[in-house]
Specification:
This protein is an alpha/beta fold. It contains 7 helices and 9 strands.
Length: 190
């Protein structure tokens, strides 16, 4: 079986990081890309594991050198991106690579690597998404409002993806995603 990149995207606070953390812990055969970002680390985040935390200058340098597979300014504030080299190496090594990124990044990856699999992680409902965002308590009220406006746009993009996984329970959603990653038929849907 040929190695194929899987891209996981979805709205803010849907649990992309939580699903990816479950996969990291329970599926060592899956290689998870570590994104670079200019935002500060949140409590408990570890540089090099959750993100590569870099300065705006270093990030811009990586972009100008073509070292990013995708990148974007998210929520009008911080830059996020996927370093290209590690993804290409994982594919060359025949691993099961997974990118956990935002909608803008997924669109850039689709343009650069249309053969990748694109999976949308959806909340069980809009109210559930709002509750998750408020409940995590990592953003100010103003930041939450910006993220919820962004989430409305992100939710409307589900049709751009090859598959949708509902994150109603982390273990179930993660196992469904890994199953999709192993499936050669995913892109045969029309």
């Amino acid at each position: 079986m040929t190695s194929r990149l899987t891209v996981l995207a979805g709205p803010t606070a849907v649990g992309k990081g939580t699903v990816a953390a479950y996969i990291r812990e329970h599926h060592p055969e899956v290689w998870l890309s570590v994104s670079a970002t200019t935002r500060p680390a949140r409590p408990g985040e570890v540089d090099g594991r959750h993100y590569h935390f870099v300065s705006g200058e270093d990030f811009a340098d990586m972009v100008s050198k073509g070292e990013m597979l995708e990148w974007a300014v998210v929520h009008g504030r911080a830059s996020y991106g996927t370093p290209r080299g590690p993804v290409e190496q994982a594919l060359a090594d025949g691993r099961l690579p997974l990118l956990e990124i935002d909608l803008q990044g997924a669109r850039q990856v689709r343009a650069a690597m249309p053969e990748a699999r694109f999976v949308f992680l959806a909340p069980p409902s809009w109210d559930d998404l709002v509750s998750r965002l408020v409940g995590r308590g990592t953003e100010t009220e103003e930041e939450r409002a910006v993220r919820l406006e962004t989430a409305k746009v992100e939710m409307a993009a589900q049709g751009e993806f090859d598959a949708v996984v509902v994150n109603d329970e982390v273990r179930r959603a993660a196992e469904e995603l890994v199953s999709l990653m192993r499936s050669p038929e995913l892109d045969d849907k029309d």
